[in-house]
Amino acid sequence: AAAAGGGGGTRVCGVECGKMATEVGRLRAEMRQASQAVEAARLHATNCSNGEKNAAAESGQLRGRIEQLMNKVTSVERQREQERATSAAAERKAAESAARAAELERELQKERVERREERVKGREKSETVSETQQLLREKETAWERESERLRNDSRTKDAFIMEMQAELVKLRMIAKSAVEAEDLRAELSLLREKTVHLEENLAEENKLKQELFRALRNTQAERDRARQYDYSSSSSFYPLSPTLGSPGSNGTHPPIGSGYTSSDLPSQQQPSLSGLSCAAEQAFAGASKHSYSFASPSTHTSSFLSSGTGQHTLFELPMPPTVGGKVHKNHGFPLVGEELRDNEKEPFYAQNCGKFGAPSPASARTTTTS
């Protein structure tokens, strides 16, 4: 009956390991997709940065153009004020000329009256009157030419003012486009901040994963050293498990972080590995500080470690190897008293080293030795 129960447990373990291998493939595909998305986000951030630089350069050119046009408008306005002052002076001069013409007209009328009187009295002053009339005609002709010139100047200035108004409308449109460029630059800055925040989150998550792998490799080294002392006591027949807990009566392991401790297990199933237990408790206590969750068999087919976001599997149990058509027990780990083969001398999660930015096994050995 015990042999039948062991065979059934082995078959269940094989099925669970097959499911875990399928889950590993799916999670690796998800990780590749996430890496591609990160690369796309970085490329988009680079494009946005280039667009921001181009927009800043164009905005600087527009500012320079606007300053030039504003200076030109200022000079035009000053010139317009001067022309207005000149026009006002010309108008005053025209008013004075009109007043003088009226005065001359009155004088002419007076002279006409006097001429009539002189004509009555005699024609002694006829030549003087003719000269005066000729002078008045010449003055009137000069005043008409001056008035025509002033009218032409006024029309030219009005046309110039219309051109300046059209140029001012163009300047206002350019200023509006500069404001739109400022809004675009603000949006690009917000997108760059989001990208930087995403990269910081990814770096923090990789750092936590590296710490967890380092703790697990230290635990594996402690377990390997403890295993060397347990080869002589083969009667215990206790398989070491990466979950740091002894197997129960049904062949399952208590989930880490689910409330079970080593004191809750039967006393005859607890190994005397004080150094290993201490290292494991320190490793998983450090991992719990960073909000890493450990899946339980009630929700998954097997125990594995996941990241704080729940999107990536950090490591999992390997498939049990088959030797001579028989499935190896205890997830591919040798039992106490068995000889280690060449392909079993490496820890089961040493194959997973290097994932998610974790250090290599060589660096782990160096750290453990030091």
TrEMBL record:
The keyword Coiled coil applies. This is Uncharacterized protein. InterPro entries: Macoilin (IPR019130). One of its GO terms (molecular function) is microtubule binding. It is a multi-pass membrane protein. Pfam families: Macoilin. Residues 174-222 form a coiled coil. It comes from the Eukaryota. GO terms for cellular component: nuclear membrane; rough endoplasmic reticulum membrane. Keywords: Coiled coil, Endoplasmic reticulum, Membrane, Nucleus, Transmembrane, Transmembrane helix. Residues 243-252 have a biased composition (Polar residues). Residues 75-95, 102-128, 136-152 have a biased composition (Basic and acidic residues). The keyword Ribosomal protein does not apply. Residues 74-152, 223-276, 350-370 are annotated as: Disordered. It is found in: Nucleus membrane; Rough endoplasmic reticulum membrane. GO terms for biological process: chemotaxis; neuronal signal transduction. Its main location: nucleus. It comes from Pristionchus entomophagus. Residues 262-276, 358-370 have a biased composition (Low complexity).
